């Protein structure tokens, strides 16, 4: 898959599953994600920056194959500009949970979010999981509206944020 925001100087990014050799670029994107949206992810920028490169490399290698968890990136040929992950939960074998969705600010509005989510959806379907679920911090209206445009529906389920007790997340689902 590729994204093309259009206009003069059109840019294209390949959306694909991570590869073991992507570890350094994935680490750079993760640090950008945490700096740009500190409440959206489950660790702090300081914690991620302190993690050794070998940990990033091991995580990328693990998510580059298999059916339990996967990471997809938007690769324009240099620095990654987007990410979406998918994972399973034992309680719902037909479900893929989408996590760590991010598009770098200069690529927002380009259609890249839809392509990243679709990459996770295709992987989910190929693994026999027909449903997607994600969680959004209550009050993150930009993300909420973006996911609605992609067909996600608010289920009415509210859960505590896993790391910040003052925040609540809402669950959204759609077919894969």
Automatic annotation (TrEMBL):
Give the source's domain of life in one word.
Answer: Bacteria
Q: Which PROSITE patterns match?
A: GNAT
Residues annotated as domain N-acetyltransferase: 13-176
The UniProt keywords, alphabetically, are:
Acyltransferase, Ribonucleoprotein, Ribosomal protein, Transferase
Natural source organism: Micromonospora echinaurantiaca
| Keyword Hydrolase set for record | no
Q: Name one GO molecular function term.
A: acyltransferase activity, transferring groups other than amino-acyl groups
Q: Which GO terms describe its cellular component?
A: ribosome
Note whether rRNA-binding occurs among the keywords: no
Q: What is this protein called?
A: Ribosomal protein S18 acetylase RimI
A Pfam family hit: Acetyltransf_1
- Transmembrane stretches, by residue range? none
